[in-house]
Amino acid sequence: MSDSTNTPFPAVREGLIGAGLVQTADARDLHACLGVGRDFTTWIKKRIAQYGFVENVDYVIVEAAPPNGGAGNRGARTEYHLTLDTAKELAMVENNERGRATRRYFIEVEKRAHEAAAIDMNALGGMVKRIVARQISEVVPALVREQVATGHNAVIQGVSAGQVIEMAGVTARKGLRGLPRWVSSRLYRFHATKGVVVRLASLGSRQAYVFDPMVSREWLMEGGKAEIEQKVAERRGQGVLRLV
Fold first, then answer.
1. Strand runs (DSSP E) across 29-156, as ranges?
2. Where is pLDDT greater, at 114 or 69?
3. Are the C-beta atoms of residues 84 and 42 closer than 8 Å to each other?
4. How high is the mean pLDDT of the chain?
5. Domain named AntA/AntB antirepressor: which ranges (predicted)?
6. Mean pLDDT, to the nearest integer, of 125-129?
């Protein structure tokens, strides 16, 4: 095994895996950080097969631009972007101090991201509360009544993909499994075009992205509602066109 003491930990970035945006790490950077003796391609393919990692669930494959612009007849190379859970497992199975340190690093990154999201949501709460109050009769009447009745405060912290689906008028979810993830990916991209940051927050027992209510409503008005309706029609066997 090569000396990896001075090799930096892999950078953690947001990436799309499946239908959701998650924190990811580059497998090639992880390979260098761990100081694995085998070449990268052999190592990652063996680990994927050995531990049953699933493409588009635990990782995605990306065809990257060739190094140095293709100098030396080098073509595009295959990169693997891993979820942090997958990266942590790969670090752990190396069974050495560097692997353990890398796993602790990933855990700390996740912890700090969750803490930052909670702080940002609290700071944003007052503004979002005013927005919701102004739009209550048009945007989320049933949802707000439910929140008031139960004493929950998820609405003033932002809206989830499921809540945006309800804003579009879809309340019956039978036969629509996976629709929130589909909507979430489109909402995230729309927020990005508007320069609005999407945060990760705790929704009950799970972590999920929450979206700005006004930006979400704008997305619905600019075609998102029609997209949802068409997707619902497809899922229920009423549509003939397929969205891309």
1. 59-64, 77-83
2. 114
3. no
4. 77
5. 26-96
6. 55
* C-beta pairs of 54-62 under 8 Å, 24+ apart in sequence: 56/17, 56/18, 57/17, 57/18, 58/17, 58/82, 58/83, 58/85, 58/86, 59/17, 59/27, 59/83, 59/86, 60/15, 60/16, 60/17
Per-residue pLDDT, averaged over 211-217, amounts to: 87
Judged on CB neighbours under 10 Å (0-12, 13-18, 19+), 97 is exposed
Q: Residue 79 pairs with which residues in a beta bridge?
A: 62
By DSSP bridging, strand 199-203 and strand 77-83 are unpaired
Structure tokens at 11: 């950078």
- Name the 3-class secondary structure at 75: coil
Q: How far apart, in whole angstroms, are the C-alpha atoms of residue 148 and residue 153? A: 8
CA-nearest of 49, 56, 116, 122 to 83 is 56
Q: Is 220:167 a contact under the CB 8 Å cutoff?
A: yes
> How many other CB atoms are there within 10 angstroms of residue 216's CB atom?
27
d(CA 174, CA 59): 29
* pLDDT tens-digit map of 26-51: 999 999 999 998 999 999 999 999 99
Q: What are the sequence ranges of the domains in the chain?
A: 12-95, 115-235
At 186, is the secondary structure helix, strand, or coil?
helix
